TrEMBL record:
One of its GO terms (biological process) is proteolysis. Coiled coil: none annotated. This is Rhomboid family intramembrane serine protease. GO terms for molecular function: serine-type endopeptidase activity. The keyword Hydrolase applies. Residues 136-273 form the Peptidase S54 rhomboid domain. The chain crosses the membrane at residues 154-172, 184-203, 209-225, 237-253, 259-276, 283-302. It comes from the Bacteria. Keywords: Hydrolase, Membrane, Protease, Transmembrane, Transmembrane helix. It comes from Streptomyces cadmiisoli. It is a multi-pass membrane protein. Belongs to the peptidase S54 family.
Amino acid sequence: MPFEEPAVEPESTVTTCYRHTKVECHVRCTRCDRYICPDCMREAAVGHHCPECVREGARSVRQARTAFGGRITTVPAVTYALLALNVLAYVAELVRPEIVDRFGMLGAGLAGPDGGHYVWQAVHPPGFSAEGVVGGEWYRLLTGAFLHLPPTEGTFGILHIVMNMAVLWNLGRQMEAQLGPLRFAALYLLSALGGSVLVLLLAPDSLTVGASGALFGLGAAYYVVSRRLGAHLNQVNRFMAGLLLWLLISAGLTSWQGHLGGLLAGLAVTAAYAYAPRARRSWVQAGACAGLLALLVALAVWKAAALA
């Protein structure tokens, strides 16, 4: 009887995804040659890549930056967030008007036993208590920059927040695109703080509210950035002349101290952004912001101690 060789089964040709082992696939990653299923395919210049190769490639590719070292973004998320915070704070004011007295920028004042608010006196009668920064309410240095005049009060009423938000919408998007989200946020907050600190130094008994100090800082940033990038100076100079003119006019209508403090802080921050040496740009920019913050805090502490 002739010898019969056992039948040999053909080798399986089924291939599966390296990540999803139960999914049959026939496409390989053009970088690592592993099989990938449709869920794992990532479009590449040639063929497809797997998720790991895509992440590895992203780590090895240098990310594009703005002219001032910031992260490039197509959505001005910080500007939108600031707009939302201002509007929400305004709605809260309409519901609870006492928020203005509780969180507005005030250097030194007295809260009376009758619930009223009085001019500051270092030596005050029994039953009166200190309020404002001198009373330990340091948060007012920033919270006041997110509040605005009630609809029927002050020179502008509801136009106060409308005008400020229009400026924030226009300037904020431009500056965030040029500086990047993180640098833009630092500029805005330091400008707001700079305005509050100058109010504390020069008019500590005045209750002030509004984003104007921060917006004057953005105006200063627009000027510095435009000059650094070589923009058409006629338009830039007209803008700056209008900003300074409004600073003079506002001296008789609103808190010029807040406007001037924001303008000076914005100039200082943006000058550091624009003229920092490229080799160590991030360190110089961060150091300048930290230095300005330390100076503003030191001035506020000194003034609070002097008032007390």
